[in-house]
Specification:
Chain lengths: 648, 145, 62, 237
């Protein structure tokens, strides 16, 4: 009964989306305030209805209503409650409903917080959101209905993929979607601005907080996903340049570029058409990510061709949405010429380089991700473009970006003296050299490249701190810094820390794979590790084999590591639970594998230096985004139509 | 600075960056852009069984055996060689000593081709000249055949 | 006669050689003709417009 | 260079060049055709099909030459905003597209008997196909707008970005294993082609280049005429 209720709410939401996406547009074109007022009401109604539907689906998962096909395929009575709830979005149907829910949430947020937007702009933004919502809701209802009933309900479900039964992954999709779908708001703003033919400082100011929020969630979501891969897959790595990872990384790069270009559009009335273009591209990449992950093309183009309904629908949706936006951009974009002139060497110039670098990097990742698909379509055979491609393309592109990133905040707007800016950073340069040389001399496995990476991280960090110091001058000035600029400083410092973590963990990872018998001791990176015993134990819905390792350093006991190998009752699928001891200097990481039949076990031990820095850096970046967002100045609470009124 | 110079600088910078990025991408793509692989390249890497691929090299002199429409020959790059079987029509340029590209998959150590393409070299000359060169002993493996 | 027939047979490759030359000729000539025609049309349009403007200018400035 | 930025002076130059280009084109193409179809020998390997080379290779060269000219002119348009540079780029596009199409079509006619296939997705053929798409995209963007000034900038940017493809086409046969053979004429250690075959090839190449200049002159003049027509109509309206 509740499921039918949810289904009904979803259908109603589709009807609301039709109204929300058409009438306000007509109202805005005619100047009819009554029709325009439908927009916020529609957005609120849509959020309410989709939330009801989502609640109904979640209820079905909680009470294990196996008469629903989606629940029967993805849940099980023996699952812990957290994973029953997380199971709501741990599958295709539910995750698309989550997508729709978050989209409606953002629409409602624009309606709620957009009190001082121009009426026409607000109506148009919400209408565009409604149109996207219509596309997604129609997709859910016609191709992936989560409320589809089974003829006869099975006694128990087929359970959730054990790999996904993990707290990290339970919260990964909602965070990632808050980021992906958050970019839809920016997209709607861009399309609305194109319809209006006007992009001014007020518009740019409105777009920034939405981009910032989306960017923060996206950063958090990607980090959580990476962290999950790190401890759950048991390979000791944290990023595999897997197409699914790339699908979330490309929108992040575009959103980062957008954050920076929106600043130029707001402060200097330049790069306006470019900013609008980026807003479209960022959401296009989000949709492309959804398409790649949800259509099944990644496993095989042919599998996609044999069961095409879902994939073809998302592809069509992508082509129509983005195509319409690009046509609109081609038609109206050239009218968005800015008035701001600037020298190549200036803050604007540096931000432009940032945009160029990020865009080209995103494009090269896109190429590497799609190229195998193209070849497959052409019948030219299967190839995999692996991590080496991405490393060789992405890292060289990021090096100059990081070099410039340190200097850019020191440059003045319009026209700057690059020599003076670099000269003022001489201490940062000295620190960077000291770090680079220190690493080179003190670590016997230090390659030139890794030392350079550490020096680069030090350079960015020192320059960021120095820039903050010159900006605030005194301790009191430090406290008086606006939260927006604290946000920038934190984000840049976070990047620096994360770069150090990435460099160190890639360059100096120690890996030891061996067969050990209980009682044996081995040594890795200065730790003596004794394999004590293996016990079998019983979890809520799995059995596990748990190995115990005593870790000592110089005779003193450090910790006990207990990696597990689990076999879930349903599906009999094994998973690996790595045991990790994180420290500031590096993670000790242990994985226990299969027994060799002679009393030994395959054991993998890793020492991953500075991995924690990566997560810390990412957290600091998210913190920076949050801090910026909490600043009243970034939220543009005042009516900012001064320029429009002046023009009228 | 004049707008003209600003545009020139932006264009120059953009072109430079784009060229650099293209170079990076092209070098990183490496063997994914090659149309075929030589026997030596294949000797150094493992090939999944039943994986479709293209091999390229010269048809070894004296290796061509025809039985009806079945053809057997050996593709070589002068350091490694691969035996090939094929059933079907051969292109006109196909002959011993000439370049060839075969598409197919490995079956028990021999390469079962489903398509054979001839690859011609970059030398063009009239037959009489070739004869004359051969007579005078100037004809070298590297420039022809 | 045989010589001519042999020549047109192109060593058995007539169906590849002649279309290649024919296609090239057709495309090049078509491009040339279209460009010439466009030039003529544009010149005619310009001449007519000049004539009209001259006339209308004469009308307004007697 | 800036001297010819003035349309009137530029048209005078074009008018002066046009008859010479036409004359050279007609004479060299006539001589080139005579050499390529009658007075040159068959190849020791490829037999008579080698004659396709005399229309294929010059067309391919012109495809790249036209694109380079178009990209260069587009760069001048963007930086110095010279209107005539843009006229040259716009007039070049259909000529370059025609030559690219010819290179692909005649190459296909050559590939079927010699390689045994009309088409393969190797680096050379694919990059030339992309060149054709770049030309078509340029023309589409250029003509998609009622207001000509709007489309021209987007088209110029596309032309410049697409210029990355030109060196890729040229060196694709050296960088990667392709079915297409390496360069025979433009190479460091001198041409690998017998003089009796080089003669028709060079004649045809010169003829194609002169033909390009001739057609370019016609199109440039028509284009400038039409913009005068538009200006007059606007003033009249």
């Amino acid at each position: 009964m509740i499921a039918e209720f949810g289904h009904f709410a979803l259908t109603l939401a589709l009807a609301v989306a039709v109204v929300q996406s058409t009438l306000p547009l007509i109202g805005a074109a005619r100047g009819d305030a009554g029709l325009m007022a439908l927009a916020p009401a529609g957005a609120m109604a849509q959020f309410g209805l989709v939330a009801l539907a989502f609640g109904a689906l979640m209820h079905a998962y909680i009470v294990s209503d196996f008469s629903l096909a989606a629940v029967a395929q993805n849940s099980h009575t023996a699952k812990p409650m957290l994973y029953k709830i997380a199971g709501t979005w741990g599958n295709h149907e539910g995750s698309m409903l989550l997508w729709a829910l978050i989209l409606a949430l953002y629409g409602a947020a624009v309606a709620a917080f957009g009190g001082n937007l121009r009426d026409t702009l607000k109506a148009r933004v919400i209408a565009v959101q409604g149109a996207i919502g219509f596309g997604i809701l129609a997709f859910i209802l016609f191709t992936s209905n989560p409320f589809a009933r089974l003829e006869s309900a099975p006694f128990d479900g087929q359970s959730l993929n054990p790999l996904l039964q993990d707290p990290g992954l339970a919260f990964h999709p909602p965070l990632l979607y808050l980021g992906y779908v958050g970019l839809s708001t920016t997209f709607s703003f861009a399309v609305a601005a194109l319809i209006e033919g006007k992009v001014d400082a007020a518009w740019a100011r409105w777009v920034r907080p939405w981009t910032l929020a989306a960017w923060g969630f996206l950063t958090a979501g990607i980090t959580l996903g990476s962290w999950w891969a790190y401890y759950e897959l048991g390979w000791g790595g944290w990023w595999f340049w897997d197409p699914v990872e790339n699908a979330s990384f490309m929108p992040w790069l575009a959103a980062t570029a957008l954050l920076h270009s929106a600043i130029v559009a707001e402060k200097r009335d330049a790069l306006k058409a470019w900013t609008v273009f980026l807003a479209i591209v960022a959401f296009a990449l989000s949709l492309l990510g959804t398409f790649l992950v949800r259509s099944g093309v990644l496993t095989s183009v042919h599998a996609f061709a044999s069961d095409p309904t879902r994939g073809v629908y998302i592809l069509l949706f992508l082509v129509v949405t983005v195509g319409a936006a690009f046509v609109l951009f081609a038609w109206r974009g050239p009218t968005l010429a800015g008035t701001g002139r600037f020298d190549p060497v200036s803050r604007e110039g540096a931000l432009l380089i940032n945009n160029f670098g990020l865009t080209v990097a995103a494009a090269s990742i896109l190429l590497g991700t799609l190229y195998p698909l193209f070849l497959d379509v052409l019948g030219a055979g299967k190839v995999s473009v692996g991590a080496p491609y991405f490393q060789r393309v992405f890292i060289p592109m990021m090096v100059p970006m990081l070099l410039i990133m340190a200097v850019a905040p020191m440059l003045s707007w319009r026209s700057a003296n690059a020599g003076r800016a670099v000269a003022s950073l001489k201490w940062a340069g000295v620190i960077a050299f000291a770090v680079g040389f220190g690493v080179w001399l003190s670590i016997d496995r230090a390659s030139a490249l890794a030392s350079f990476g550490m020096a680069l991280a030090a350079w960015v960090f020192a320059a960021t701190v120095y820039e903050l110091a010159t900006r605030s001058r005194t301790w009191r000035g430090l406290l008086r810094q606006p939260r927006v600029s604290w946000g920038m400083t934190l984000a840049h410092a976070g990047i620096a820390i994360a770069v150090a973590g990435m460099t160190a963990s890639s360059a100096w990872k120690v890996e030891d794979i061996r067969v050990m018998k209980p009682g044996e001791t081995t040594e890795i990176s200065g730790y003596q590790i004794t394999f004590t015993n293996v016990v079998d134990l019983r979890g809520p819905n799995y059995t596990a084999m748990r190995g115990t390792f005593e870790v000592r350093s110089g005779g003193a006991a450090v910790t006990t590591l207990q990696p597990e190998k689990r076999i879930y009752d349903v599906g009999r699928m094994p998973t690996t639970e790595a045991a990790i001891r994180p420290t500031v200097l590096g993670d000790l990481y242990a994985v226990i594998g299969d027994p060799d039949g002679q009393g030994g076990y395959v054991v993998r031990l890793y020492f991953n230096p500075l991995v924690a820095w990566m997560w810390t850096g990412a957290l600091i970046m998210v913190l920076g985004a949050g801090l910026s967002l909490s600043d009243r100045r970034a939220r543009a609470t005042r009516p900012l139509d001064a320029s429009a009124q002046a023009a009228a | 600075m004049k707008p003209k110079h600003q545009r020139l600088a932006l264009l120059g910078l953009g072109a430079l960056g784009l060229a650099g990025a293209a170079a990076l991408v092209l070098t990183a793509f490496e063997d994914n852009l090659v149309f075929f692989q030589t026997p030596t390249e294949l000797a150094t890497k493992s090939v999944a069984p039943n994986q479709r691929l293209r091999i390229g090299g010269l048809v070894q002199e004296g290796s061509l055996v025809k039985q009806g429409s079945d053809v057997r020959f050996v593709v070589t790059d002068l350091s490694h060689s691969i035996p090939v079987t094929y059933r079907g029509l051969l292109p006109d340029l196909f002959r011993e000593g000439q370049g060839v590209v075969a598409e197919g998959r490995f079956q028990d150590g021999t390469f079962a081709a489903s398509e054979v393409l001839a690859k011609h070299d970059e030398n063009y000359m009239p037959p009489e000249v070739v004869e004359a060169l051969k007579k005078s002993g100037e004809w070298q493996r590297t420039t022809g055949k | 006669m045989d010589m001519i027939r042999d020549y047109f047979a192109m060593g058995g490759y007539a169906s590849f050689v002649w279309p290649a030359f024919g296609l090239s000729a057709v495309v090049v000539v078509a491009l040339l003709v279209v460009s010439l025609r466009n030039l003529r049309l544009s010149e005619a349009a310009l001449a007519e417009l000049r004539h009209v403007t001259l006339l209308s200018e004469e009308e307004t400035h007697p | 260079m800036h001297r010819f930025a003035n349309p009137t002076r530029f048209v005078a130059l074009v008018r002066a060049v046009q008859p010479w280009a036409a004359g050279i084109a007609l004479v060299t193409l006539a001589a080139g055709l005579w050499f390529s179809l009658i007075a040159s020998p068959a190849d020791y390997q490829q037999g008579e099909t080698v004659r396709i080379m005399y229309v294929h290779v010059p067309a391919a060269w012109m495809a790249m030459f036209c694109y380079s000219s178009m990209a260069g002119a587009s760069a001048v348009t963007l930086v110095w905003r010279h209107a005539v540079a843009h006229v040259v780029a716009r007039a070049t596009a259909p000529i370059g597209a025609s030559f690219t199409f010819l290179a692909l079509a005649t190459g296909s006619l050559w590939g079927k008997p010699m390689w045994g296939t009309w088409w393969v997705w190797d680096a050379r053929l694919t990059s030339v196909l992309i060149l054709l798409f770049l030309y078509l995209g340029y023309m589409a963007i250029e003509n998609a707008f009622d207001d000509r000034a709007r489309g021209s900038r987007a088209a110029a940017i596309l032309a410049i970005v697409g210029a990355v493809n030109v060196p890729i086409i040229k060196f694709s046969v050296d960088w990667w294993n392709t079915l297409h053979q390496p360069a025979s004429v433009v190479r460091l250690d001198g041409p690998a082609i017998h003089p009796s075959m080089l003669t028709p090839l060079v004649l045809m190449a010169v003829g194609y280049t002169a033909l390009y200049l001739w057609i370019l002159a016609l199109r440039v003049r028509a284009d400038i005429n039409m913009s005068k027509v538009r200006a007059l109509t606007l003033r009249g309206a």
